[in-house]
Amino acid sequence: MSVVPDMAVMGGVSFIVGALAFTGVFSWLAARFDYPRILDGDAATVLPRLRAGGAPMRAVWAIYSLLPLLLVPGAVGALAALGGTPLMTLALVLNAVGALAMCLGLMRWPSIHWVLAESWESAGTDARHSIAATFRGLNLYLGNYIGEFLGEICLAKFFALCGVAMLADARFPAWLGIAGLAFGIAFAIGAFRNVTTRVQWLADINNWLLPLWMILLGGALIRSGVPHP
């Protein structure tokens, strides 16, 4: 097998593993941390609950913050499978930027937010006001703008460009390219949920469609990289 097919298979496996890991961690946090609804809570509600989760909660958040990195080898595999065109090169760059943005957004939980949660326990009234302001600012900047908005917009463009590339490649079924393009557009629209609540319903659907699409895309990349008799 040549190097290019190997990279395509690697990318497909990365997408599938990332999708399964995302679903597992998301479900764990939903059950034990009321995620993602708790993201709308204030410091007095969120920080004590974060701290009460102990080492397992911190470890899960640390793992969660690294999962977006699996998108990068996935994008390399997509580049290998769909050809090193300017279109797919742009897709790879967007994927890398989006993955980094998502990592930065999620990493606030096991790092800065964890320290804030530790300080909250023994802080006085005035100190808690300062901690709450810091908590809100970090959520707005690292969470809403960097992790969610920038990260999801870049990832949406990656998916859409992959869909366009698959439509131009006879090895991939047309429906898969259309699905990739459609999901990329829907994912981009859902990223504007912090601007208007009118698209929140779409963002909620995207949370479940994302792992499904990653598995479909990963399977297509694996199929394209495995030589057929």
User: Please, how many domains?
Assistant: 1
Largest sheet, strands/sense/barrel: none
Q: Give me the Rg, rounded.
A: 19 Å
Instruction: Report the total helices.
Output: 9
Number of strands: 0
Task: State the end-to-end distance.
Answer: 12 Å
The global form is elongated
Q: Percent helix among the residues?
A: over 70%
Stretches where pLDDT falls below 50 for ≥5 residues? Answer: none
Q: Bin the strand percentage.
A: under 5%
| Structural class based on helices, strands and sheet pairing | mainly alpha
Sum this structure up briefly.
The chain is 80% helix and 0% strand.
Task: Give the tags.
229 residues, mainly alpha, 80% helix, 0% strand, elongated
Characterise this structure:
- With 229 residues, the chain is mostly helical.
- Helix content is 80%, strand content 0%.
- The chain contains nine helices and no strands.
- The radius of gyration is 19 Å and the shape is elongated.
Write the layout of secondary structure elements.
Layout (H helix, E strand, L loop, with lengths): L2 H31 L9 H10 L1 H13 L4 H12 L3 H21 L5 H11 L2 H43 L6 H17 L9 H26 L4
